[in-house]
Predict the structure.
Amino acid sequence: MRFPVVTVSRSCKVVHRLKQSSFLSPASALWRHGSVAGSSQERKDVRSHYITTPIFYVNASPHLGHLHSAVMADCLHRYKLLQGFNSKFATGTDEHGLKIQQAAEAAGKDPLTFCTDVSERFKHLFSSCNISYTDYIRTTEQRHRQAVEHFWSVLWNKGLIYKGHYEGWYSTQDESFLTPSQLGDAMDSLGNQIKVSLESGHKVEWMKEENYMFRLSAFRSQLLDWLQGNPRAVQPECFHQLALQWLQHDLPDLSVSRQSSRLQWGISVPGDPEQTIYVWLDALVNYLTVAGYPDKHHQWWNVVHHIVGKDILKFHAVYWPAFLLGAGLPLPQTIHVHSHWTAEGKKMSKSLGNVVDPLQRSQMFTADGMRYFLLRQGVPESDCDYTDLKVFKLLNAELADSLGGLLNRCTAPVLNPAQVYPSFCPQSFPREQGGRAVAEDYHMLNAVKNLPSVVEQHYESMHTYKALEAISACVRQTNGFVQRHAPWKLDKRDSKEQRWRDTIIHVSLECLRIYGTLLQPVMPEISNKLLSRLGVEPGERSWAALNFLPRFQGTDCPFEGRALGSDSGVLFSRLENPNVDKHEPKKAKKAAKLK
Ligand code: ME8
């Protein structure tokens, strides 16, 4: 019996394997120019990945979407580590700008105190959800001010910033400039006609100021070349196309400062205290600050992966690369874009009162439960709707029943009285059919054997939901395998029957070991519990250690005969239906569960 080569269905046009895609293509190396290009410092360290989330505005508490970006980035970071790479992972808060200035005023607090309070809430959420960032950046930090001032000076010295006059529409909520084609008409709460951004729905105002302008227009063709030469630079494909579309039109120069009389809460333009640096330029430089800019960034400013929501694509796929090109710095390897969560079919917003609190949900459904849900249900290409009921149904079905049930069956003392990883019997499950195993069992083995490469492709392209779908399908197959052979029915007095029973359990535990290892980036706690129960040591949990079912291949299995871990607790406890009133009689609750 040979394991066939797996083919994977792909939603994006091009999906590369890690070995190809995590390294720079010759085309992208073109973009690694700059003042020190070619120096040993600038040479790419392919073992080092740098992963970022957006830095989040502190004008309001964290919501589910923020947690989603952080969980995606954390998953990629943990996955890179598992594969043996160095990985730096940064998140943090965006604390300057008019919007924050106004929010602090409304809260009656001084801006820094206000920012610190909200920033701490983000930190608390992230630590509660095991977001294993290696750096947390706040744009009010001194190291960031230095990086921004330096970055500005580089652009200024290259003649890429000039003093000009800006006249146009501005949305404070989005901290963004808009062209007339991006606007629509609406009514405010007092019945006045107002202009709003078509994309965000936020109010815009006419603004006329003397500002510093960045020569964005000069970079259009270089940006086009970059995107055309690197078809995987923005993922998924639909967002890559969108960025290319924007570049089909002229790019007006970009205002990169505001008059200090309007905006005080920010970083002053070096040498001109009358002007404050535009909050987006300030914010984007955070990625460099964490990397060690201006003088220690070379190791990390190399293979950079930005994870962003679709709302801020233009800032990351157009403005940011233009700034970097201007400053002579390498461009990001990948901009991973994800779509949005809605709540009960509507955009989450404070005014609608439908913002889902991620901290409260992670307490209700556990941190790993929420991580699993977000990554299992979140489809990067399209918006997804959040309901508590969906979480409850998914987690009960896939974690409590399917995965937890499988572990429980194979480790329960009644089936496994010796509490060991039992032996595999090659005669019962030979390489060619003829033993006790049937065709479906061989199919299952194939599926699990191929699972790591399937999961790798999907983790790489951040289609984590597909990776989890594939794992979940394999878990179902393994449950089917156990069910089919009902090892509990095998005669305990017959040694041949017992060898077959041990083989069934050995194969199932091997499957579980693969699932536990692959699930680590998504659910660190549950995977740890699962692998510990199987007796898999921390040093045996890397991607390189996957090696499924070596006994079937005729080589030794280090786990065979090993004692199981002592924690026999439930892997994931079944959840109570959140939609059922606690005071309802038990019968009604049961009926609702079955729906
Ligand atoms: O834009 N669904 O910060 P922000 C999924 N400070 N993700 C969502 C979401 C939703 N409904 N809502 C927000 C900013 N997000 C800037 C970023 S980066 C240099 C500066 C996530 O607090 C998503 O990642 O408005 C989105 O891009 C980000 O939060 C915006 O967060």
Q: What stands out?
A: Residues 54-57, 65-66, 68-69, 94, 283-284, 286, 308-309, 311-312, 340-341, 348 surround ME8 (CB under 6 Å). The radius of gyration is 27 Å.
